[in-house]
Amino acid sequence: MTENEILQVWGYDFCIINNYAYIFHGLINALFKVDLEDGTISYLNTIEYDASCEKSLYSSMVKWKEKIYLVPYNASAMVCYDIKSNTYRSVMEKEFKILDTFGKGRYVYLQPMVACNPILKFDLESEKVVEEVIVNNDYDSYLGISINDNCYMENGRYAVIITPINTICIIDSNNGEVSKISIQNTHDIYASIEYYDGYIYVMGSKEYTIAKIDPRSGEIIKVYKMFNQYGRLIGRISDEIIVDMAYSEKIYRFNCISGTIKDVIYDSRRKGYSCRYYWYCYGKLKKNNNVSYYFNRYNCSLVCNFLTSDEITHKLVTSDEDYEIIKKYIVNDKNIYKNEDELVSLEDYLKYL
Question: Could you tell me the superkingdom of the organism this chain comes from (predicted)?
């Protein structure tokens, strides 16, 4: 790992609380805070962890009141971080790797990496799992089927895309009902998902198409062929879905009404060092109080007020003082990356598909 990699604050996820962004570093065991006014970055704490897992510890961050829950990927347990006291504690031992989270308010869903494991509905107040959602019970397909992405629909309903079998699972958080829809007559393998105005949109990892789907029947209403490389649907702002290309610095806005695309242009293009992980190749888009934030994981920057005239970009680079503090937590031997149970690379993932 180079010094440049250490100084840049890179992570799998972030969360916004008050006027700060919190990011847990993806390559070292360190939690950081970013002042959204001036971009100042502060090192906060280091979490105790298994010695064999010095990277990819937490895949997702969930805020609840004055706490942040760090959801485990390689870490052995979920951790609750208290913002006021700058302390942490173990909450729940990990049963399997969690890839992502979705949900609002008190209850969140913990999305596993492989589809034979259940999606866990987690109560942030009691800090307990209150429900298991089974989306695929074929245990023979352990290595073949994954829950690749999720999106919010409306009226408390969420959708997940199961790859490569092109199945959409819709979860109603109000009553716990689960429905499965198979996408009909497709030649692509869909890996990311979004929703707009009664229809589900998915993007493929084989033909790179975007398909508009009727969630009641699984019928493809329209297919859009406008990309020649792999990209992800990472979120929606109004009637535009943000398409983040994994192999280039291009980011597009796909208009759900017109079916056209536009480039996103801002002053923080992705020109960082070469990626090491699959998730590293596209950004994270989140909303907080109707403000959109884009976490650029190519060059380690955070864009506030994304796609507005008030857009501000903060470069996420630690201070020299913090660098000296966190050096002892750094993995110096690059060969460790090959030996640990790490996130799959984008190249290997696409070869697998």
Answer: Bacteria
